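Q: For a teaching session next week I want to show students how multiple molecules come together into a single three-dimensional assembly. I've collected the sequence lines for a complex. Could you give me the predicted structure tokens for the whole thing so I can convert them for display?
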Amino acid sequence: MPELRSVVCVKVVPKPEEVRVDPQTNLLDRLNARSEINPPDMNALEMALGLKDRYGGSIYLLSMGPVACEPYLRTGLAMGCEHIYLLSDRAFAGADTLATTYTLAQAIRKLGGADLVFCGEESSDGATGQVPSGLAEWLGIAQLTLLSQVEVDLERRRARGRREIKGGFEMLEVPLPCVVSVKTAANEPRFMDYRIKDWAFEARVEGKPGRVTVWNASDLQADPDCIGLNGSPTWVSGLGQAPSRLRKHIFLQGSQAEIASRLADLIQEDL
Amino acid sequence: MVASLYSPEQESPLLLVYLEQDQGQLEGVSLELLAKGRELVDDMNRHRGAGDWQLAGLLLGEGARSQAETAIAHGADRVYLAEHPLLGYFTIEAFCHVSYQVIMQARPGIFLLGATPNGRDMAGRLAVRLRTGLNADCTGLQVEQENGLLVSEVSGFGGGVLAMIQMRQHRPQMATVRPGVFAAHEPDSFRSGEIVTVEAALNPEMIHTHLVERVIGQGVDLRKVPVLVAGGRGMHGDFAVLHKLADLVGGDVGATRPPVDEGHIERERQIGQTGVVCSPKIAVCCGISGAFHFVVGIEKAGTVIAINSDPQATIFEAADYCIVGDAHQVIPALIEELEKRGRPASVRGSSSGNAVQEKAYA
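A: Of course. Below is the structure for the complete assembly, covering every listed component.
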């Protein structure tokens, strides 16, 4: 029986509630925010782990970002991934969707490809939701997006998934390999396995291979014209804090009947 | 930098809108994009003192000609219409193939799609195929007067941060736009436009996606309900009373994540960062503490009413009218009051509205 080979793409993001725009510089203040693996990506990881539980095989966790992301990725090891790869190079910085999907696709090729490439629905920081299908295009493979469930038939080399759409769902079948994006909150990501947690987070010993393999642009044999800021057609021409809506904060006082009457007025006025 | 397949010098003065349709109906966001596209094209022509920019639609399907006419009535100057048996239902391969074919022929300067599941999937693939940039899930669009470049507004971090994005050297300038941010025009059946028939070069071998089954039920769409009645952990699973209030005012019920996780209410009713972002006229928040992840889902509400027994609850910071009390008592009292008054005119005729109204006024 052939074994399933999965890649899960994840992004380490600042916790959204802690990110602010610096009013002086008009730049994102990410430094003072704590980070985490993008929560929707955890749903993708859980779906991949669930398939591994059923069909066996191995999982490669793949991320792009600064070396400081490394500790957050180790969570994946402690949850049951076999390998972690971090794509980290100054030349990757400033990548938009086009450059990001190119870079991830190069890494997946270098890993020797995969039966399934999992992504979260979108990232909490950029929320473009456009990486999965861009990645599928670079790799020239099929895609199943917004899945709440997936199963594979390794003999026939096909995947079947339930795609959540407005007011219902579709059951779709595609040949392997394929890219899968997972509907946010489709599952409950498992806890870390405490038997391997210490191993996963063990500090790196000089001269020994680390828990996380770091690849740079030349490791990927990436075309310098396709990566980072240089490979990104789009650029940010302005940035600002979204105007938070000013609310009135009026506390209604009185008897229950008076409050009910006031609320009924408010609702009927506005409709 | 890698060049797009055609350059700004090779573009046509054309703003192309992907017209998404489902079972003979154009999606709301496609009509919204036609309205916004019309405005942008008219702006550009006014500024340039010429009438050369045009608004076009791209419509793929089987037997979709009447929707092409609808698109013209909603502002399109031209519709590229491809009809083919393999376009009868959505597959990423067929729809991208024909869209790519039309784009390479027509060379639009701007190409807009709705940020729906299918629109996002197509945009992601097509941007890579065309080697161009993509601004995703935009909440605003404008054109820079001096150079005619598209500026897209996108929000990140759950809506807390806004960024303006543009591209200079790549065409088409692509963007997906969040449904509901622009208003559609009323159709004008006297408008005239051109329908350009496209020969779709498709064969079954190109298509890898096999649709096994499609089930569309009575969908809940909270994005545009006029009144949102939302419940949190403080409702202790009792959503029946919230449904009753919602029915009475022509609204619908939403929830925070805990009641959804606990199985008290369907996941499609979850409001907030990992759920639905809605823009009701009124949001009534019952027994909700007010976590950031929830509040981003009601930031666009006209008026926010919050009911919570804890005077320190953070939901009050996001509310216009605050009631310190138990929603289990406040809501039934409000229902009683509304029933006493009769239903507002705006929901007359829905369900048993007329009968109730007559009784109330008798």
